[in-house]
Amino acid sequence: MPQIAQLLDTWSSQVFWTLVFFGITFFLIGRGMVPKVMETVGLRDKQISDDLAGAQAARDAADEQEEAWRERENANRAQAQALIAEAKAKAAAASEKKLAAAQKRLDTKLEKAEAEIDAARTNAMAEIEDVALEATQDIVSRLAGTKIDKRSARSAVKKALANV
Amino acid sequence: MAAEEGKVDPMKQFQVEPLFGSESWEIAGFNIAFTNSALWMAITVVLIWGFVFVGMKRELVPGRWQMAVESFTGFIDDMLEANIGKEGRKYVPYVFSLFMFILFANLLGLVPVGIIPSVHAYTFTSHFTVTGVLAAISFSIVLIVGFWKHGIKFFTLFVPHGTPVVMIPAIFVIELFSFLIRPFSLALRLFVAMMAGHVLLKVLSSFVIDGMNGGIGTSLLVATPSFVLMIAISALEILVAGIQAYVFALLTSLYINDAEHLH
Question: What sections of the protein cross the membrane (chain B) (predicted)?
Fold first, then answer.
């Protein structure tokens, strides 16, 4: 086994060159290059996480804006609804007023007409009474040859007309 | 390798040989010959550097290669965060280096460069001198972090919560031993796993060569099944290469967790 057979001759050379070459590996590669490689990895990881955070922030902002838009939209819609309702109410009130005015006009016309009819009827009645009075006086003078005064004739006429 | 001689020495692949006439290089009396082992360490470092460098384009949208490098660093980062927590991040450079060094070494040892004459793959993680150094570094980090953060209280690591007072001395000794054995188990596990796989492959390859040399009968009866088994075990070895690198890194992170948080 050369490892043991040559131990005395070679151990110092083996130890020396191991130290030299492992030392080169450690100082040149381990200390010199590995931190740079890891720094690159760290930078990349940072960039990725930053990008992800940025994307998340952008999405949050978009959500916020959408929410604001929705709110505004809802408000606008409610406003429009209110406007429509108001217009409707106004129109309804206006037409009601117009209707009421028309009704009133009609009512007064009707009343007037009724009053006129009443008056006409009273006049007609009075004329009928007068005619009946004269007729009664005439009839009585012709038949009985007596004149009756206006008063008794009127009361008789009234009596008879009350049954009409 | 030894095919010309008609037999395979399964241990020869672990032989350490000085290259470029460097066998007499010394520092303060210690031999530091530039061996085949050191050469493969150098190749490993260059390959890891190339792998990470091509993946270091630092683009926002990564290409395949950058993705591959980032998945390795992310894998180590996740493992440390799962085992240690937020404090684990500062150990990523160390554990990443450890994991990649062992992984590339293990995998390089399996690359069939042997088909090129006089080039031999060499797995330096199959030497406990090498794995021992790596384990010692990990263990030192545990000790330094532990005593740095907790001072003398670090010793409470060896007394689990709710231990009856009379049991404390015994438990303390047992826990201390299990703690002190960690670097050895760490080093031996990797070394043994790598060595065993390579020895097995070489033994099977000697069956293939000897079986084919023995004639038609042994070719069918011995060489062919051995060859099929070699293919299967090579696949298994690739898995083991990854698993051993992972286990080394995972245990290191668990031990560091002990040092960071005691219990």
Answer: 38-56, 94-116, 128-148, 155-181, 187-209, 221-247
